[in-house]
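Dear Dr. L.,

I hope this message finds you well. Following up on our conversation about the binding site, I have prepared a predicted three-dimensional model of the protein together with calcium ion. For your records, I am including the exact sequence and ligand specification that went into the calculation, followed by the structure tokens. Please feel free to forward this to your student if that is useful.
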Amino acid sequence: MSRKIIIDTDPGQDDAVAILLALASPELEVLALTAVAGNVPLALTERNARQIVQLSGHQTPVYAGCDAPLKRKLVTAEYVHGRSGLDGIPLPDPTHPLQAEHAVDYLIDTLRREPSGSITLCPLGPLTNIATAFQRAPDIIPRVAEIVLMGGAYFEVGNVTPAAEFNIYVDPEAADIVFKSGVPLVVMPLDVTHKALTSREWVEEMRALGTPVGQAVASWTDFFERFDTAKYGSQGAPLHDPCVIAYLLEPALFSGRHVNVEIETGSELTLGMTVADWWRVTGREPNAMFMGGVDRDGFYRLLTERLARL
Ligand code: BDR
Ligand code: CA
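The resulting structure of the complex is given below.
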């Protein structure tokens, strides 16, 4: 039986690869994509989500959610993802429709309708949609099977500020609600994703697939890579968000610790920091499986094998 998931996303080239990986995988039933403002404003993230679904040849419904964080002004990342959020080869204008229902209403309705414990949420952007749904309908919280998300950092500390990772920094109040919700959490922080770097060979393997998906993934990676190679001097780009989906398919690729993670919402200096009790020095209750390692070659083997199916 396949596992039902909802992908909450702000595409983003790495979000796009994550979505394609999920759609290519029969172990997962992607009920919907819910778009949120993040890498670029909502009007672009929902559009990009529809373009990605169209590229995959699937009919997965796309819902638009919150256009701004709970309490703060939206911070975007065009400097990483380009003006569209999905710069690379141009994709056709989406004809795949946007659903009329708001993503938050969709999340609430679906979690109430489907059997309790049957849906896993996969947030790949700021946690605004999920936190809004939890605030508005607390009865859905115990009905969520698990949340597997990309966000935060401990040893790597921050990418958008010296202390914070982008997804958590953009909406720290939302992250705080999710991390305190009591739902079982699996977290893919920068500590993992910065070990999941693309290689030139892998990008060329994607291009050599000779499919529209292969071409798109190669062009996205080429675009995305520029930022990280210039900033970190690394070879290749970190495919952050696909780590979430890869975990659902092959959890043994990842290693981590079940620890307490709190979100900084007060300090201006360290706003959005994920304070992970990696060394278990606080006695605070563990609330998240916080990952630290990935089998990089196994991860890319899985991606190649699955993306070739589309
Ligand atoms: C996260 O921020 C976004 O730019 C990426 O899509 C990823 O979800 C990495 O910090
Ligand atoms: Ca993302």
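In brief: The mean pLDDT is 96.

With kind regards,
A. P.
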